[in-house]
Amino acid sequence: MNRETKKGIRLRLIMGFAAAPLIMITLNVIGISKVNSIDNSLTTINDANSVKQRLAINFRGSVHDRAISLRDVVLNTNPEDAKKSVEEIKKLSEAYQASAVPLDKIYESGNVSAEERDLLRDIKAIEAETMPLVQKVIDARFASTDDSALKILMIEAKPAFKTWLARINKLIDHEENLNGAESKSARAIASGFQQVMLLLTVVSVFATFILGFLIIRSIVRPLQKVASELDESSDKITSVSELISDSSQTLAEGSKNQANAIDAISSSLQEMNSTIQKSAENSLNAARLASESKESAANGEAVVKHMQMAIADIRSSNIDIMNQIDESNNQISEIVTLIAEIGNKTKVINDIVFQTKLLSFNASVEAARAGESGKGFAVVAEEVGNLAQMSGNASKEISDMLNVSRQKVEAIVSATKQKVSILVASGQAKVDIGTKVASQCADVLSQIVSKVSEVTRMAQEISIAANAQSQGFKLITANVGEMDEVTQSNAKVAKETAETLLSLNTQAVEMRKAFHELSELIDRDTNKAA
Asked: Does residue 260 lie within any of the structural domains?
């Protein structure tokens, strides 16, 4: 086997071992790229769109509550209560501005679209139109006792507030749509990433098998050729050995002189036998340790399965939390129903108040016109009293419903907190179990490493024993040389033995040369791989 062939085999082995890391690097680069794309989408949802949506929701709450407080300013007959409602409007305006400042900073940073800028500009425009109307209603309420404030509220302020809320809701819906688009994009990337990775994995495995097959075939062919040469040489040596066997019958007379040499050979063989037994014992121990390593690995697998069960329990706890949140949402829907009923009752009160004002006005006009005879309008006054009684009853019903709503909300909040706390504690317990199981996995793997180290040490002992065997073979060779010298004492057979040994030596040299080339090839490739 020439040097070029050796280099070719070494190059094939290097290519084979380098192919797997290159495939792994390619898969990792693709995976990192896809994960970064998903991370960018999630960052856009959480750090940009959701922040703007949350601030817009704060806008909506402030505007909605201000509309209610402005209505209370108009409807409250007690000036002190009306002033409290005005103060509430001021606080809500400050809360609105507290959300407007960070939202303006986000828009100034440039991380917004043209459509978002238009939506915010529309909100600011309707805000500028509505705020003077709010002040106009308040001024009319405290400046006169007629229903001018109510007219301004119903005719001018109410449509403005509706438009304001509609534009805020439009911004909220826009951000929700952006989040939906980003989520869809992230899911599409994740789905495509899964398919790409699966395809690349299949292709990589197939390519690895093909490459390995080609490399093995390219290495096996030269080795088969060498093995064939060794086999031919062995046949020739066998033929020559038969000739030597025929000639050895004539050497019986020199057997006594060879006795001492044979004794030395027997001693060497005994030493070799002892060394071989030691190697066999070490091999048995190595097999036992390998079996123990297998058991440790099985234990590790069981522990990992246990950890997977613990993680599944955590997932179940998370599902329970989600179910509890759904239940809370249903209960909050009931509160919304109560609030709707409150709105209906408020409408009744408004109608009664309006009728009361009309009756009072008519009564005062008729009484002034009739003079003493105006006492006949007692019936009208009685009707006014009845309407006032209805107003009181409706107000009491509203108060009762508000108390029920408050109690129900408190009960929901308390129950939700308690249940969530229990579920979180349960999840934490499952996490602790998972941590403990992971620690057990580490211990089992440590045992496996220890067993493998022991196997390595015994393999080294086997190597030392093999060296001892080599020394024994050298001693045998030396004793055979002594036997050859004794054999030469037989002159009659010396010539035949010399001719036979000459032929045997030629065949042995050829076989030794082929054997050394094969050993050198294996040793060099092994050293390169190491």
From this structure: no
